[in-house]
Amino acid sequence: MLKLEGVSASYGAVQALEGVSLEVPAGKLVCLLGANGAGKSTTLNCICGVVPVRAGSITFEGVRIDGRRIESIVRGGIAQVPEGREIYPEMSVADNLLLGGWVHRRDRRQLGRDQDRIYEIFPRLKERAQQHAGTLSGGEQQMLMIGRALMARPKLLLMDEPSLGLSPVLVEKLFEIIRQLNEAGLTILIVEQNAQLALRVSEYGYILENGEMAFEGPSRELQSNAKVREAYLGT
């Protein structure tokens, strides 16, 4: 479904990615791991058009998308849950969700059905639908960000550090929801600092070091790789 071939990107004179290649097959959950500054978020931002690709190519469902406008990429079926709590705090939970479906704004009836589906996945959001989003807890805000991305009706969901700042109990609940979304057919590429958990729920993994791909393979093989265990799993 998604394929990066030899992708390089930079921020001015600073090289962020160098020759990165990866694939995310349809219906799979794939993780992208690495230390802070390794280039994980830059990779996601290249996919969704926020960071321009300097070299290489990105194709989605056989169509090249690097160089396209962000809205075109979203309309094509890719949505991102960015790192942090990038919500609109003074707007209601319901209105935050509707913003996620902006590219489908002409189909108001379907937007309402989409919103109802999000409330089924995250009942807590339905309970707080008319509250300002800024009054939600950290875990609820993360639910809102995922729900807002799902409102775009993605075929591929990019997730950047979804467990950041959450308690261990909330992290387990969140990853159970992520697993369920994938089992329902949604393709997911997840960037995550919690390497143990990411490898546990994913089928295949990639590990970046200093903007270059250092390891890749089935998640179980990466979990048993001595170098990976020492450098990223703390064992």
Protein described:
The chain is an alpha/beta fold and 235 residues long. Helices cover 39% and strands 26% of the residues. The longest helix is centred in the C-terminal third of the chain and has 16 residues, at 168-183. The chain is globular. It starts with a strand and ends with a helix. The relative contact order is 0.19.
Q: Topology, pairings included?
A:
Layout lengths: L1 E10 L2 E11 L4 E6 L5 H8 L7 E6 L2 E2 L5 H6 L2 E4 L11 H8 L7 H14 L1 H5 L10 H13 L5 E5 L7 H16 L3 E5 L3 H7 L2 E6 L2 E7 H6 L1 H8 L2
Parallel strand pairs: 3-8, 3-9, 6-7, 7-8
Antiparallel strand pairs: 1-2, 1-4, 4-5, 9-10
Question: What are the key terms here?
Answer:
single chain, six-stranded mixed beta sheet, 235 residues, alpha/beta
Main beta sheet strand tally, sense and closure: 6 strands, mixed
Number of helices: 10
Shape: globular
Low-confidence stretches: none
Helix share, percent: 25-40%
Which percent band covers the strand fraction? Answer: 25-35%
Output mean pLDDT.
Answer: 92
Number of strands: 10
Structural class: alpha/beta
